[in-house]
Amino acid sequence: MTDLTVNEPPMTPTNLYSVTDARELPAVDPAEVIFEIRDCAVDYGNHRAVADVTLDIRAQEITAIIGPSGCGKSTFLRCLNRMNDFIGSAKVSGTIQYRSEDLYGSRVDAAEVRRRIGMVFQRPNPFPKSIFDNVAYGPRINKYHGNVGELVEEALTRAALWDEVKDKLKKSAFALSGGQQQRLCIARALAVAPDVILMDEPCSSLDPIATSRIEDLMVELKRQYTIVIVTHNMQQAARVSDRTAFFTTDVDDAGNRTGRLVEFDATQTIFTSPSDPRTEGYITGRFG
Description:
Elements: E1 33-44, E2 47-58, E3 62-66, H1 73-79, E4 90-98, E5 101-102, H2 110-116, E6 117-120, H3 131-141, H4 148-158, H5 162-165, H6 178-190, E7 196-200, H7 208-221, E8 226-230, H8 234-240, E9 243-251, E10 257-266, H9 267-272, H10 277-283
Parallel strand pairs: 2-10, 3-8, 3-9, 6-7, 7-8
Antiparallel strand pairs: 1-2, 1-4, 4-5, 9-10
Helix pairs in contact: 3-4, 3-6, 4-6, 6-7
């Protein structure tokens, strides 16, 4: 990977080579393909964990990834912002085009990829800092030159948290409830002006009320962002997503498990008239 500096040309939708502090994203066509994924596979050493994933993810939609445990949903999700780079034995093959740019191209700055394509994890992971400093952390390390206070307020407002925390911004983030912490983590991701938000089981540790607030927030955020969510909760996928990908697991004679994409379609189609009997079996609870 080439180490390019901020003195290079400003980032454009197809320039992932340098960091920018621009706050505004380009206008997008809702029909625009953000990710074009062809024959994506992930190997951990000699074991193929995910194989043969081909699909398109479109702008300003929520794409849900469902399937039984161990089918590679999270592994695949991490391919979309190069989080698998942190796993020494992981190798991603196939092609993943992000806004027509090869996400794994030799000159692409992986740190910039992870800024443009943010991630919210299964369990809230606030930093041991104040609420304000949690949200301001990303812009500060990216050398944001604008008004950080206004930026923090904007991000917290977009995450539907500002009214609840505006009078206690200096308090520890750990003083917040689990649902508030997860919305804080979403605000932290929004503060660096991402284009895409990846969510890996963001509601699995939350109660039904907090889950409902996160789901409402996702629907609101898709007006400005493209969202990809991994979830075990099929009802959640049915409620919030526009398209759904169903993964399953193949197990060989040695017991090795490989995740595969079975079907990808509009969510209503997946849940009412799937084309593959394996999808129908999972949706109706016959396995998984």
